[in-house]
Amino acid sequence: MYDAEKVDLILDVPNSGVALAVNQITRDKGKAFIVSSAASSDLTGKACSPNTVHWTYDTWALANGTGNAVVKTGGDTWFFITADYAFGHALERDVEAVVLKNGGKVLGKVRHPLNTQDFSSFSSRPRPRRPRSSAWPTPAATRPTRSSRAPSSGS
Hints:
Layout: E1 9-11, H1 16-29, E2 32-35, E3 52-54, H2 59-72, E4 77-83, H3 86-101, E5 105-112, H4 120-123, E6 133-135
Parallel strand pairs: 1-2, 2-3, 4-5, 4-6
């Protein structure tokens, strides 16, 4: 678009993986990019660019808001079931850092393919002990559940 259509600005893209790629192309071309639907904190962290404005929320905010609150109210032992793409990886990393910083534990983690609807095979894997919180870093469920059992596959 920058070369063929001669645009100066791209406004948003569908997800974090695409945003990270467009972010680098934008930087290389000296153009501008405004992101609102991609949530990877890498856009304002390791891939930060003077050409990109990351608007709205990101995985750092989700981790330090919701993740921090869950840990401080007793959800200090976690198991992650994470979408296997840029957003899921960033959210898992950022929440894990908050959990560990606040004295919590991560018992384990698994990654599932994007667009998986049935998480039962992932949530039933053996773990050392039951977590107090289960995190589901996926586009459809970005908040942890506070329970001693994982949600059913219909959740």
